[in-house]
Amino acid sequence: MRVALIQGHPDKSGERFCAALASAYGAGAAAGGHQLRTIRVGALDFPWLRTKQEFERAALPAALEEAQATLAWADHLVIVYPLWLGDLPAVLKAFLEQTLRPGFAFPLGAGEASRRALRGKSARVIVTMGMPAFVYRWYFGAHSLRSLRRSVLGFIGVRPVRVTLIGSIETLSTERRARWLAKVEALGRAAR
Asked: Which residues span the domain enclosing 185?
């Protein structure tokens, strides 16, 4: 299977637990014989979209051409990110807005030529957060995750979308972190 691993933490240093999780998934995918390409969103330099016209008609920034080609190439997408203020970090959202544009990820308009480069792909979303995962899921209704699954990935034809929530990240013991890394590595081996 061809896997596109999107490491969505804004910190490009690679010292965050999201980076360790992405590395664990990647190691598992390699061990499972899968092809892997990684996109480190925090390391990319691209402008943010500010108007509907830019979203619909502006050229894709050169810095994102390889990333968009990777998304088209993959059979399975993996998105790893921290929950910030109850949502995706802004740079990850900006990345998705830039790369998942009309004419690539969904039809451009009625009667116009369109491509759906991502239809039929599957996804795994791995989210870390400070609060307990059950609080995010049950009290807050996992609202931003539901939006990503339904209004972004589902809208462009990515199905199924599986989820891994890792809560209380600041207080996880070294042992618990190691168990999460092993679990994510196993997910990578199976490309799930």
From this structure: 2-190
